[in-house]
Structures are given as C-alpha cells and as structure tokens.
Amino acid sequence: MLKFYEALSAQGGQKNSGIIRNFVCTKPQPMARIYVASSWRNPYQPEIVAALRKAGHEVYDFRNPKDNPGGFHWADVDENWQDWQPEEYIKNLTHPVAEKGFKADKDAMLWADTCVLVLPYGRSAHTEAGWFAGKGLKTIVYMPEKQEPELMYKLFDGVVGSLDDLIHSI
Fold first, then answer.
1. Domains of the chain, with CATH numbers?
2. How much is the pTM?
3. From residue 31, how far is each of 46, 109, 113, 152 by CA, in Å?
4. What is the pLDDT of residues 35-53, one digit of tens each?
5. Would you tell me the crossing angle of helices 96-111 and 123-134 to the nearest 10 degrees?
C-alpha cells in the first residue's frame, strides 16, 4: 500500500513546509446498503453481517431486525408448523406474525441496494436473491465452503469464496 506522500507524488502533489499543493480530493464512494440473504441454520451469517458492518456498510440482519428483535420464526405462529399440510401453510401466510416478519424483510429489500447471498442458505434466500437480480441490483454469492456447483449463479454479479473477496466485490 502506498504511503500518503508517495500517493501524492504519484498524482503530482507536492509537500512544501507542511502544506500539500495540487492535491485533488475525490468524493468517497458511498457505502452499500446490504441485504444478507441466508438461512437461520447458516453458521457464517453473523460473521458476515459483522464483517460488512466493520467495512462501513449498512447491513440488514434478518436475525435481529431493529423493529422485531429476534426476527421471524414460524414457531411464533404455531409450535407445530413443521407438520402443516399445504392448506395450513397457505392460511398461515396471512397470520399477523407472518405478516409482520414479511413486512420487515420486504422493507429491508426495498431499502437495500446490494444483496449478499451467503451459502448454505434456505428457500427464502433463493427468492430474495432472485428478486434483487431481477431488479438489476448488485447480487453477490458468498461461498465460504465447498458447495455443489450451480450454473445459474451466472445470473448474479459475482461468486466469491473469501471474506476479503466479498468485501472488495461490493
């Protein structure tokens, strides 16, 4: 990495008695508003949220949204949710708890300008990433471990395998 004065001299800037001349200051790049699409079972999700925030980005965390600490859980609708038949599932999509959880995630999707799809992930994350790509918004797949290859990831803006590459791709 160049030192400050080395960078200046490369740009034609001069140091004279502590005064910097001919230095052009550029506007910093705005940080991204990121929606992290993943799964409750994904062990990497908290680390990714923290790393992106540390890098200066604003990040929506579906596990801890500001208006609904703890996030949405189907068990808050019905403790037997895993035994639902299709009719029960369809009916419970309109349950007030489900509506509140959907609104929080959808509002965050509308707010965000970037989606990071963290593998492995669940069904909702597929839908969310597809929505972002369909809207023409930046969508990056982060693959921290070996996964089955997926050809259709070519629809997205990139696939990265390291945290450094993820941060630099945004």
1. 1-28 (no CATH), 33-169 (3.40.50.450)
2. 0.79
3. 19, 16, 10, 28
4. 999 999 999 999 999 999 9
5. 40
